[in-house]
Amino acid sequence: MTSQYNSSREIVFVLHGLNLTQTNRHIYLVFTLILYLFTIFLNLALVVTIFLKEMLRTPMYLFLCNLCFNGIIGASAFYPKILHDILFDSHVITYSGCMTQIFFIFLYVHCEFTNLTVMAYDRYVAICKPLHYHSIMTIRKVWRLILLTWFLSWMECIIGCVLLARLPLCGVDIDKLYCSNWAVVKLSCVDTSLNNLYGLILTFLNFSQAIIILISYVNIVKASLRSQAGMRKFMQTCLPHMITLANCSISVFFDSMYAHYGSNNSLLALRNIMAVEFLVLPPLVNPIIYGMNLNQIRKTVKTFFKRRVVALMPLVSLSFHQLEFQK
Asked: What is the model's pTM?
């Protein structure tokens, strides 16, 4: 019979996802750190670029800025803990630390889907109702939609975490690289029907958002085919959005399916890839896709770095002459 853990002292969970030798630990540490810093840099570069350039403060770019900011939250909910575990060969996390990680991963996923839905609506109005776009998508309405995105995501996360926190636990072993809602629910000693029901409600909401996005894009494609200019706008702004949506949806779907139906006897590397794909790929790929496809962002970033290189050239030249003089 499984005993219930004493709630008077904090539970410490044991994570079983990492299996590194002393030799390859440093390789994984350096690779993961570079990946994290590169992800943060790309997303911050887009956020700063959009806010510094007044001409980029349009609905589409503000929604993109929100998407990149959310990507920073998703990456920061995962990378610092895994870097700590690799560096110190630690495989444990406190109950409060676990709940915090679950909350922010929850927040990242739900905000990603909601923000992609809002972006689909914005593209629908821009391409299907171009003459009314500026009267419909006012800056005031854009900020309301962004605030609504965060409000709904926070409410979904708070309810999910409250339902999770009420469960008494009969185990501490999590067969994953990080804490996830379903992994902790499976450790419960009591009936989890309410948690399962809430999970189904959230799945239905995400599915409804996907349907709204698909309907929007059916109408967008129809409108784009009428003119060459519409098709060009579709390729520049809508195609990156569709790639982002597919990337996020497939990643979350595989992680969810594997968490519920995957076998613990499968390869550890496969389990880890399936578990972290939605936390690694979307935050990394989103700014690259949009940065490459949107001319305004590409030009602004290119100009910014050219100015920085020109500004640094005199300093490099001075340092070089000083070295020559010392010789």
From this structure: 0.83
